[in-house]
Design goal:
Number of strands of chain A: 0
Oligomer: homodimer
Number of helices of chain A: 9
Strand content of chain A: under 5%
Protein name (chains A, B): HTH-type transcriptional regulator BetI
InterPro entries (chains A, B): DNA-bd_HTH_TetR-type_CS, Homeodomain-like_sf, HTH-type_TetR-like_transc_reg, HTH_TetR, Tet_transcr_reg_TetR-rel_C_sf, TetR_CgmR_C
Keywords (chains A, B): DNA-binding
Chain lengths: ~190, ~190
DNA sequence: GCATACATACAGACCGTTTGGTATCTTTCA
DNA sequence: TGAAAGATACCAAACGGTCTGTATGTATGC
């Protein structure tokens, strides 16, 4: 994004870059590090540009979280369509998507941001609704107490992933995934 | 804490009040709301007083988190000494302390703060070490994969507790507690 | 009377946001 | 077809506010 002033205009790219930089900052240094200045500096644009694309800083952060939830949405949906077994289908998808993300990209790309969206009161409601939507939608196939425990455990893995880089204990993910998935299958 | 200037000096009380107010702010409005000004205002003392008791804002927050972890420590230890069954003793204590806290005080007193201590990079390491300490210490009795799943599920309940007030789905805690504890017992 | 426990006042940095201007892009219409 | 006109994209600078932290003053407690 060099020589930004006189270059060709590329609004879509700038917007994307801003969102990506904001997400990266939140993940690597916490939500507190997501200042307008820091994001713009990382994206190599000025604050004016940022405020052209987003009405406020909060609007930008909201957009980041919304994108994150949409991505999770899509991943879960994709995992579900290939699953022939109805019982526990959503729970299985939830587990696989969660653990696979942690296993694939070392840096646990979304974890910190996702958890951050829970601590910030302004973002809590969005995530709460997103989550409630799923539970409501799949009540018919995923209502068993054991399945709930599996989902809660998957959430717990998110947290463990946060501490991973700081010497926190990290479970054997492949084995854990296997075991959790097994728990979602009917006896 | 009225008439602060000419009242009797009570350093211990002031320190306590500051810590309590900082914790309350973090729990109710998120860690971002914990500014020196806001804490001092809530405690009805001046910044001078606060900086007399704590070397920096970060030192104060560290103290809050340290207290929280100490409290958890004590609660877990207390739950363990009354447990005759060695196998899974720590995991059982972890589950009961976690869920009982959420069940007892509606507002999930510590949840938000605890999660914040995971999100904020400056606090992560302390919590990671605290957690690793436990796992290390009780490896002999709590190393089974099922026990790990139970602990992860308990962590997941922390997260669910965060979303509770915003309409997020909340599990039936007494039933869940029963079921998780049952999973920690040898067959 | 000296250390401790505060209050007061202030400094300097950084925050999100606004403003005003200058590019580039797109549409319109002669 | 192309030039004028308007909309959009972006920069640069500055504003008011709030942030943490410091320096200094003043009371209390032993």
């Amino acid at each position: 994004m060099e020589n930004a002033y006189r270059r060709r205009k590329q609004p879509e790219l700038v917007r994307r870059t801003l969102l990506d930089c904001a997400a990266r900052l939140a993940m690597e240094q916490g939500l507190a590090a997501v200042t307008v200045q820091a994001v713009c500096e990382a994206a190599a644009v000025t604050k004016g540009a940022m405020f052209h694309h987003f009405a406020s800083k909060q609007a930008m952060i909201d957009a980041v979280v919304a994108e994150l939830l949409e991505k999770l949405d899509a991943d879960i949906e994709a995992a579900m369509v290939t699953d022939p077994q109805p019982y526990g289908r959503f729970t299985r998808a939830y587990v696989t998507v969660t653990l696979d993300d942690l296993m694939l990209n070392q840096g646990s790309q979304w974890t910190a941001l996702y958890i951050s969206s829970l601590t910030e009161p302004s973002l809590r409601q969005v995530t709460a609704e997103w989550f409630a939507k799923f539970v409501r939608r799949h009540r018919a196939t995923d209502d068993h107490p054991t399945l709930e425990i599996v989902r809660l455990a998957a959430d717990g893995v998110w947290l463990a992933g946060l501490l991973r880089d700081d010497g926190g204990p990290m479970p054997d993910l492949p084995a854990l995934r296997k075991r959790l998935v097994a728990m979602t299958l009917p006896d």
